[in-house]
UniProtKB/TrEMBL annotation:
One of its GO terms (molecular function) is transferase activity. Pfam families: PTS_IIA (PF02255). Keywords: Magnesium, Metal-binding, Phosphotransferase system, Sugar transport, Transferase, Transport. One of its GO terms (biological process) is phosphoenolpyruvate-dependent sugar phosphotransferase system. This is PTS cellobiose transporter subunit IIA. It comes from the Bacteria.
Length: 101
């Protein structure tokens, strides 16, 4: 497996962890468990930061002229990361709605 594919799988892993934590946080907010929900949002953010770190590594290599070719797994990882970040952002808003109802 080449380096780009390995990094892509790391992005998918951490983005998936972040998305799962955000979705679980929404469920806890439904049950008025806001402290736990808030902690899961923090956990999601940490996981997404890890994924973003791998993405940044790829971007820096590309900017320096040492980037590798794009493959479908890398494209999938980028889609996965952006979706997970959106889910986390929306989960934060949904939790606030539950908290203030």
């Amino acid at each position: 497996m080449d380096k780009v594919t390995e990094i892509a799988f790391q992005i998918i892993l951490y983005a998936g962890n972040g998305r799962s934590s955000a979705m679980e946080a929404i469920q806890l907010a439904k049950e008025n468990q806001f402290e736990e929900a808030d902690q899961l949002i923090k956990d999601a953010t940490k996981e997404l930061e890890k994924a973003h770190g791998f993405q940044t590594q790829l971007l820096q290599e590309e900017a320096s002229g040492t980037g590798a070719s794009v493959n479908v797994i890398l494209v999938h990882s980028q889609d996965h990361l952006m979706t997970a970040m959106t889910v986390r952002d929306l989960a934060t808003e949904i939790i606030d709605i539950y908290r203030n109802k």
